[in-house]
Amino acid sequence: MESYQARFYDSSGNPPDQVQVQVVSGKINVVGTTFGIPFDELVLQVGGHDGDRVKLVCEKESVAIVSEDRGLLTAIANAAAGTELGKQAAQADHKIVKRGTQKAKYWTVVVTSICALAITGYLLLDPLSAAVATMIDPSFEVKLGEMLARTEKLDKKSDSYKRVARIGNELVSHLDKSPYKFQFFVKKDKEVNACAYPGGILIVNSALIDKATDDEELAGVISHEIGHVIHRHTLKQALHNCGLITCLSIISSGVGGGADTEKLEAAFAVAQKLESLNFSRTQETDADLTGLELEVKAGYRGDGLIEFFRKMEKQESSLGKSATPLFAMLSTHPMSAERAARIEAELKRLKEKHGKN
Amino acid sequence: MQYDVLHEGSNAVLLVSLKQGEKLRAESGAMVAKSPKLHIRGKMWGGFFGAMQRSVLGGETFFFQEISAEDGNGDVILAPSLIGDVKVISLQDGQDYYVQNGCLLAALEHVEMGTKAQKLTAGLFSGAGFFVLHLKGSGHFVISAFGAIMEVPIPAGQEYIVDNGHVVAWSGDTEYHMVKAGKTWWSSMTSGEGLACKFQGPGKVWIQTRNPRSFGAWIGQFVRARGGLLSLIG
Q1: Is the pLDDT of residue A259 over 90?
Q2: Containing domain of residue A39, as a range?
């Protein structure tokens, strides 16, 4: 006679007793006792957290037997075939098997839905941050840029500053109408880098100025950064880093310029340092093309950016890995062959357009 | 190993006397005081993946503290973070219990812990979260709650309804599903109860007499929200 592990609950409310039960001629017997419950006094249920426990409830005696052994169900189904209990046992067995399959399906749906939502959110982030940027007044960008610039120790007197300001202002004078007032600064820093704050504040590191052989190379870098400002890349990328929820909040609450700027500043503060934002390949291309047009209009050769990057790459490889942190610009703005070819093709087109050789 | 709950009620603590060679596991940061001979160290209960599952899915701390009597007998006093009671529950082989995240203060002797996912509706509305702690093995475990803890036996074939946010732990043989607290949706919402957990016997459920979320909401009305990201996304 086969025995099944079970827990026996009585009406006392005490913890259940661990028991063995057997299915014997129309009854469920508790092994080791004289206690047995006739089939016709039992109600069979399936329950427990995972819905895989067999509950045999006898309301007359206010007791219950709970087991996780499906063999008990099979035994009841066979012994009570043709009765209500036998029918309940067969249905319960089917329900437990079905629940196992349903659980797998349920988790597949949950995981797939989460993945789909994450992918949708990721894909929506770029167009959303671009859309949100259009809702933000340029005056906010100017305020944000000025606020950030105040935290930096910037050089506004040296010869390097004068050189950068001269080239920058020359390039800007060939710009069409722009809502931004461009300001150029120099920061004393060993890292060869330059960055554009929102609203038109451009900072060139002293190491970059030292490395630039001539004004052509410096103009290439500065015009590229001007391109980022015009296309509002810093703002868009900061919004991108703030995440989907912030973008949706701005869209729903209609945050623009003026009174709500504090909220945006707080959001940006947690997003990421603006200097370390990585622009997308499309954004880099846009900045290259805009910068190039500006250079050509201002009378520069236009190949300064490519020349400068090639020179830096050579220097970095000759100095070894220890020098890599000093050439951060190379990793954030890699001059791939594809990018260089695109710039050269555009330069050729612009020169033909403007009738230059 | 002997234990005693002192100052039962709002400021309850658990005093455990360990004999040499014995050890217990407790919620991170739960120790109030201990004998010098007892050693305390952070442990990943159930290994790295078990700890990850518990902390990421269950909302529990990644590390539990293990207090062991390696150099001799000693006492340790453990207390939960919240103002409320603690209760010791006996666990015998073959039984299992579910405990809401953050309500497990300590586990004594040979208690095993895992994480189980709840049904979507239960995860969303029960107040216990999407993942709960699953305890089995043998020994005792100690739960803590906000307010007093009531043990409610549910006889076989009977049901019991607990307002969401008040459930602390329940035995593995019982199960619950979400129901509206009133007869109709209108009465459920206007009574302020909304949804509740309907448990099916046989088994036991442990409930806390205060709802931490309701208390948080009550406190919240006196705390002036400041500008910034929270107000932006909130």
Answers
A1: no
A2: 4-99
